[in-house]
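Table S2 (continued). Query chain:
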Amino acid sequence: NFLGFFTIWVILLFTYRSFACGLYLLGPLILSNIMVNAYMSVNNIGVNIHTLPLVTVGVGFGIDYGLYVVSRTIEEIRVRGDLIDSVREALVTSGKAVTFTAVTMIISTAFWISSNIRFNAEMGLLLAIWMFISYVGSQTLLPVLIVLFKPRFIMREAKHAAARTHMHTQAAQG
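Corresponding output:
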């Protein structure tokens, strides 16, 4: 888990040029990881060579959901300049795509529960739970963290947009 999260953090560091970005995106993912690990513990499902691919897929979907929200928020704040409006628009637009993807994947994966092969049924349920928790985190916890803490990697885009608008206004007046 640590290696996977660290790898994601490094990629986010270079993608968004921000140390904090990884914390915002990994927060909901770590929370879902804790919940899934608790579920695995209660059901005596160990982390081994057979469950490791499932962990990788769960983490992959979880970070993917968050990336859509953050990237869309950055696009919107460049235009709107207001964080709350930008997060709202990001959830209305990319949130629909994330919801469609999550619901499709969760329902289709949940069908594995009906498998006669116990391992497949358990892993299907586990992956469906993981994707659901990651989805909920990306659509609730992540936007709250962004609005509450106003991360610099997003707010600097609003400042750039304001500076561009100010330059265009001055050019039009002059």
